[in-house]
Amino acid sequence: MKGLRRERDVHRVTDARPSLSADINRREKIYLIQMGIRTICLILAVVVPVPWPFRLLFIAGAIFLPYIAVIGANERGKDAPPPTFSSPAPDQQEIPLHRREIGS
């Protein structure tokens, strides 16, 4: 009987990835924070009288932060595995017999 038993994979809750909605919420919050920083940089570059080196720094932040924010918002979770595409089993027909249409 011992030889017939197969070992089962044990899954723990701590091994689970965050849910899709939690990942989306995290990315939305980060995006909104970065866009808020960009808005502040834009306001500081236009309204506040500061020396030109600081003004150029604020302008650069207003220009490059949207790109960085979009790339970060489109990034999947770091723990998410890459998408996999499962191929059908080699013995499986293209259309199962019980799903054949009339006339085929």
UniProtKB/TrEMBL annotation:
InterPro entries this protein is in?
A: DUF3099
Keywords attached to this entry: Membrane, Transmembrane, Transmembrane helix
Can you say what this protein is called?
Answer: DUF3099 domain-containing protein
- The reply to whether Transmembrane figures as a keyword in the UniProt entry is yes
Asked if the Swiss-Prot or TrEMBL record annotates the protein with the keyword Transmembrane helix, the reply is yes
Region of interest (Disordered), ranges: 77-104
Residue ranges spanning the membrane: these are 30-48, 54-73
Look up the domain of life of the source: Bacteria
List the source organism: Nonomuraea dietziae
Q: Which Pfam families match?
A: DUF3099
